[in-house]
Amino acid sequence: MFDVICDQYHLLQMMSRFGISTGFGEKSVREVCEAAGVHAPTFLAVAGYLKNGRESAPYYVERICVSALMNYLRQAHSYFLNFQLPSIRRKLISAINCSSANEVAYLILKFYDEYMGDVRRHMDYEDKCVFTYVDTLMRGKASGDFRIEQFARSHVGIDKKLQELKNLIIKYYNASDAAELINTVLFDIFSCEDDLRQHCHVEDDLFVPAVELLEQRVAQGEKPEDDNVTASPDTDPLSEREKEIVRAIVRGGSNKEVADRLFISVHTVLTHRKNIFRKLGIHSVSGLTIYAIARGLVKLDEVEL
Ligand SMILES: [Fe+2]
Ligand SMILES: [Fe+2]
Fold first, then answer.
1. Of 269, 243, 293, nearest to 304 (Cα)?
2. How far, in Å, is the centroid of ligand 1 from the Cα of 73?
3. Residue 21 CB: number of other CB atoms within 10 A?
4. Which of 18-27, 162-171, 183-192, 226-235 bottoms out in mean pLDDT, i.e. has the lowest?
5. Protein residues near ligand 2, an ion, with CB under 5 A
6. Quick one: which ligand is closest to 156's CA?
7. Which end of the chain, N or C, is more open, meaning fewer C-beta atoms within 10 Å of its C-beta?
8. What ligand is nearest to the CA atom of residue 159?
9. Could you tell me the pTM of the whole model?
10. How far apart are CA 126 and CA 133, in angstroms?
11. Second CATH level (architecture) for the domain 240-302
């Protein structure tokens, strides 16, 4: 998992929307997903789609578990509405002069508030109508006349107005007295615009086709997928002997002292040390100490800081 995240650091955001937090150690993607109760093929499908672009969507659709993807989309809605958009608003207020004398600033804030209202309505509709319909479908029932195709037909991107706001600020707002603050808001708007665009693409390219497949299965009387994920036992790349060496190293002392305490040669300590650092991708005793405390191998008062 660590390699996947370092390859595309923006997947950190995707990971948290799947309910996975950092601190997963050396676990593989499958192990991290299973420990968090997340459907790993769906996680990998969304990661692959975000990396490879819209043309790759058909390859991933069949791998998707609809309920896992829907949880991801719900979390994304909550992130935009409760965190990202309010945070941009706060930064906007501190960056622009909102006094009534500055009419452009006043209109920019008004424009932004109207935009937040539009996004809230868009996401509320998806949460309350579309996702509720899909929940019913997953219980094997088709409700009323609604079909996902109707949603797909009227589904529009919600990033355009944000793009317009950014353009208005850049072109018409003179921020000579708060250039750094305005730049920070603009960076956030650029990033939020990309994020919202990708969110809508995931809905159009992965969610809608996956729900269409589900509709077909339900229409044919098939039982919808069972996506229960069972947690796998925690795994650690180090052997018990290597953990013992880690404890001795982080408790302090020279290689000779560590060797004497464990009744082994200095050469053996150095070989273990090299293997441990390679396996963990850690290259310092301070790093090894964080690992040892996080894994519960030692207590803070036992280590040499
Ligand atoms: Fe959405
Ligand atoms: Fe949407």
1. 293
2. 6
3. 10
4. 226-235
5. 203
6. 2
7. C
8. 2
9. 0.77
10. 10
11. Orthogonal Bundle (1.10)
- Digit-coded pLDDT (tens) for 28-48: 888 999 888 999 999 999 999
Contacts of 164 (CB under 8 A, 6+ apart): none
Burial label, 200 (beta-carbon count in 10 A; 0-12, 13-18, 19+) = middle
3 state SS of 45:
helix
> How buried is residue 213: exposed, middle or buried, by Cβ count under 10 Å (0-12/13-18/19+)?
middle
pLDDT at 91 over 60: yes
* Residue 262 CB partners (closer than 8 Å, separation 6+): 244, 245, 248, 269
CA of 300 to the centre of ligand 1 (A): 44
Task: Please say whether the beta carbons of 34 and 230 come within 8 A.
Answer: yes
How far, in Å, is the centroid of ligand 1 from the Cα of 15? 17
Q: What is the largest CA-CA distance in the chain?
A: 79
- What pLDDT is stored for residue 143 in this prediction? 67
